[in-house]
TrEMBL record:
<protein>
    <recommendedName>
        <fullName>RQC P-site tRNA stabilizing factor</fullName>
    </recommendedName>
</protein>
<dbReference type="InterPro" id="IPR002942">
    <property type="entry name" value="S4_RNA-bd"/>
</dbReference>
<keyword id="KW-0699">rRNA-binding</keyword>
<dbReference type="Pfam" id="PF01479">
    <property type="entry name" value="S4"/>
</dbReference>
<comment type="similarity">
    <text>Belongs to the RqcP family.</text>
</comment>
<dbReference type="GO" id="GO:0043023">
    <property type="term" value="F:ribosomal large subunit binding"/>
</dbReference>
<comment type="function">
    <text>Key component of the ribosome quality control system (RQC), a ribosome-associated complex that mediates the extraction of incompletely synthesized nascent chains from stalled ribosomes and their subsequent degradation. RqcH recruits Ala-charged tRNA, and with RqcP directs the elongation of stalled nascent chains on 50S ribosomal subunits, leading to non-templated C-terminal alanine extensions (Ala tail). The Ala tail promotes nascent chain degradation. RqcP is associated with the translocation-like movement of the peptidyl-tRNA from the A-site into the P-site.</text>
</comment>
<keyword id="KW-0648">Protein biosynthesis</keyword>
<keyword id="KW-0820">tRNA-binding</keyword>
<dbReference type="InterPro" id="IPR036986">
    <property type="entry name" value="S4_RNA-bd_sf"/>
</dbReference>
<dbReference type="GO" id="GO:0000049">
    <property type="term" value="F:tRNA binding"/>
</dbReference>
<dbReference type="GO" id="GO:0072344">
    <property type="term" value="P:rescue of stalled ribosome"/>
</dbReference>
<keyword id="KW-0694">RNA-binding</keyword>
<feature type="domain" description="RNA-binding S4">
    <location>
        <begin position="1"/>
        <end position="61"/>
    </location>
</feature>
<dbReference type="GO" id="GO:0019843">
    <property type="term" value="F:rRNA binding"/>
</dbReference>
<dbReference type="InterPro" id="IPR025490">
    <property type="entry name" value="RqcP"/>
</dbReference>
<comment type="subunit">
    <text>Associates with stalled 50S ribosomal subunits. Binds to RqcH, 23S rRNA and the P-site tRNA. Does not require RqcH for association with 50S subunits.</text>
</comment>
């Protein structure tokens, strides 16, 4: 499954266009390699997504073409969530 589609279907990022922009800016890695929006995501992959002041690390547990809101959380497991402090 494409990275941008996974991020949208899993609801880590709400819109696919936003997921594509973030990926194409080099702010997402798959298994420690910088990923593009068209990169393939597989079960067991570790994704690191750098938002503005938050870095989210998740492990892919399932690939589903479509999900309901309450089932989206089953597609990944949060490994860590860190925040940058502004001074």
């Amino acid at each position: 499954m494409r990275l941008d589609k996974f991020l949208k279907v899993s609801r880590i990022i709400k819109r696919r266009t936003v997921a594509k922009e973030i990926a194409d800016k080099g702010r997402i890695t798959i298994n420690d390699k910088v990923a593009k929006s068209s990169s393939d995501v597989s079960v067991g992959d570790t994704l690191v997504v750098a938002f503005g002041n938050k870095t989210l690390t998740v492990k892919v547990t399932a690939l589903l073409e479509t999900t309901k809101k309450d089932a989206a959380g089953e597609m990944y497991e949060i490994v860590s969530e860190t925040y940058k402090e502004n001074y």
